[in-house]
Amino acid sequence: MAAVGDEISLASARRIALAAQGFGDPKPAKADARRMRKAIGRAGVLQLDSVNVLCRSHYLPVFARVGNYSRSTLDRMSWEPGRELFEYFWGHKAALIPLTAYPLLRWRMRAAARQVWAEDPSPDVTAPWSVVAGMRRLTAEKPGYVDQVLELVTEKGPLTAGAADPAGVRRKRTDPDPDPTTGSMWNWQDAKIAIEYLFCAGKVAIAGRRHFERIYDLTERVIPAPVLEATEPTADEARRELVRIAARGLGVGTAKDLCGSGQGHFPLPTATARQVIGELVEAGDLIPVRVEGVKQQSYRWHEAKDQPIDARALLSPFDPLIWNRDRTHHLFDFFYRISIYTPAPQRVHGYYVLPFLLGDRLVARVDLKADRKTSTLVVPTLTAEPSAPDFLEPLAAELKTMATWLDLDSIEVTADTPLKDLV
Q: What DSSP letter does each residue of 336-376 carry, written as one string?
């Protein structure tokens, strides 16, 4: 089918995307909870990741949008009574999500509960393969085991996965993997498999984190009662609203950007995605457009704005603006791949590399590390993009703000760059 809709320039699409993500708003001197909520709402979700070489990744998108803010406030919003966020899977990604989206995901929880028993899992569900494969083995080898784990959580929760084995046994990492089909990365004990299944199915929820280890409890003891008692939309209604959230956060994007498998904001099977997008176009929520240089049909959120962007931000590798690497390449002409899993001799730009956004362009790659023993923000590597404007003074200012935010006393630039004279 030929592309339809008005054509918009690549520069316009880039500004629309940045504005949708909240980069068109000025940063306050110190952001309060209200500004944090607004930033989280614009980001849509905060992806979780265990790497802590700089700081946990979910803190960084809020910092990129509002500057200095209290991380302890975000912790309270995420994992303490009165919480405003909850943990679940956003697409394939573990994430913190606003509680308003909880009813929209309950159909996925029920589908995940069914998926582990199916020989041909529904493509509509994204329970981790370690859970699916592990549960098939546990069902055959230990019938009733999951019910025992749930009973233990009911009686003694909140619990870590290591404390959730009814027999009180915790398998060591050096023990043989009972199910090698899950891969060495998922060398989970049986209790971990069972409790992660219960989490995917919505029967337990994440009550908190201890040294970033998940703590599980019954869902009704974690998620506020008004949220659990809210009217639940049908699966079709929920899918439409989830794609609306994706479109609002992207501003403009292709069907694959919105809900395609792999890097889509909220993955859906191809046929389902096509149906949902068609319904949202008909409703006027999505406006078909053609983006300069993009062959696929694009869609613009009906309220998305093209506005001047005067941004200055260091972006987490897991920031919603850039986690879709193909879209990042198209919009910003910026080929970006995370380096933390790359062997050291093969790294080009460093280990934990943050793109630096200046105005509406990604102008540099900044390798960063927080040396907590010396209370120092370290810059081991800095790489400018081809034809980048002068960015050293704005980058120095952003690094100073980041060091203050992270409670670090100094900045050390070990990279061979004039930046060291500015910090």
A: ----TTS-GGG-SS-SSEEEEEEETEEEEEEEEEEETTTTE
> What is the 3-state secondary structure of 236-251?
HHHHHHHHHHHHHHHC
Global confidence as pTM: 0.92
- Beta strands 353-359 and 311-314: pairing type? antiparallel
Tokens representing residue 338 in the block: 């995370």
The dihedrals phi and psi of 299, each to the nearest 5 degrees, come to -135, 135
Helix (H, G, I), strand (E, B), or coil: what is residue 269? coil
Q: What is the DSSP string of 300-317?
A: EETT-------EEEE--T
Q: What digits encode the pLDDT tens for the residues 113-167?
A: 877 665 555 555 567 778 888 888 898 899 999 999 999 999 999 999 999 998 8
pLDDT of residue 170: 54
Cis ω before 158 (30° cut-off from 0) = yes
Give the phi and the psi of residue 76 in degrees, each rounded to 5.
-65, -40
What are φ and ψ of residue 391, in 5° steps? Answer: -125, 0
> For residue 14, which of 282, 284, 285, 305 has the smallest C-alpha distance?
305
Distance in angstroms (rounded) separating the CA atoms of residues 130 and 115:
12
**Partner residues linked to 86 by β-bridges:** 97
